[in-house]
Amino acid sequence: MPTSKFTWEKAYAVVEPQINAEGVHVWPFDPSFPIDIRFFDLDGRHNIRMNRHDYFELLYVYSGEAVYQIQDRRLVVRKGDLVVIGSTLYHRITEDPCLQMKAIVLFFLPELVRAAEANGDDMEYLMPFFLQDHGFPHIIPANTGIPSQTLDLIKRIQTELPASSNRARLAVKTYLKMILMLLVNHYAAYLGNQETFHRKQSAIRRLRPLFEYLEEHYDEPIRVEDAARLCATSNSHFMYFFKRVTGQSFLAYLNHFRIAKAQSLLASTDKPISEVSQEIGFCDQSHFGVVFRKLVGMTPLAYRRRFGRASENKSPEPAKPAVEPSSQNLEFHRAVNAK
Questions:
Q1: For labeling, which of 43, 194, 228, 287 is most exposed (least CB within 10 Å)?
Q2: How sure is the predictor about 58, in pLDDT bands with cuts at 50, 70 and 90?
Q3: pTM for this structure?
Q4: pLDDT exceeding 70 applies to what percent of the chain?
Q5: Is 330 inside any structural domain?
Q6: Is residue 210 assigned to a domain?
Q7: Which ranges of 10-75 would DSSP assign to H, the alpha helix?
Q8: What's the rounded Cα separation, in Å, for the pair 297 and 32?
Q9: Would you place residue 43 in the very low, low, confident or very high pLDDT band (cuts 50, 70, 90)?
């Protein structure tokens, strides 16, 4: 199908109002499953402000070309290229009426990959996003074959969204990890020569005893002092070091880890919510409910009703995501297959 029959969103109209005064673009994810795919038309007539974001971004150039400004660098992107953007660098597509581009964009929060494993493997998957220094090669050219493989996996993810069942969520995470492995393999030589990469690897090894302890004892009280002792460091240095390595405070990481365990139990067992709360280390069920709702966007009971075993035996209507889904899903698949 010709791209002219696509229903594209004007990037400026969508993105610009979501950039706050600090220059941070806040995307309204479904909190329970923070991943989204959008279809943007960048006509070159409007200038989106320089911005950064907490999520990670993959932009596939479907047609045309544009100039991508990342910090003080200006990089030309063309049809078939893939752009890899982390969470710390200010960037934008520059205004140029002579250049027009249509792009398929994948947004996701790292928490989606950090899920329920506290062994540091999640950090390995996300290395290409964490280690974006000044000279990082953000653009993966079309002739490497990586962008087309990534597009195929984005297409598979799109068929599963909104992920309203455990099977769909597993599929989305699997396809996303396949994309991340493509990136890890592509950037292996670059990262292998970077001092920052080796420092990061060494830092993860230093935290390994803590990750192993969390996997076995997450149901027990774990204080910052306990974590610092496992890493053989002072409390203050541990808090600084942990956030520098993982991008989260220790308490935030622990809460995400425990809530991911709770999500698994709520979906796969019939244990009372009070028991689930105790089993993942929350002594106060009320506090568990508050943290769960803050991180997942719904109560534990609502989550069980939506994703529990009983829900697998019926066909519930998909919950309305935080952003209205685009109307072009079917057109997307036809257009990609027609390429």
A1: 287
A2: very high
A3: 0.70
A4: 83
A5: no
A6: yes
A7: 11-15
A8: 6
A9: confident
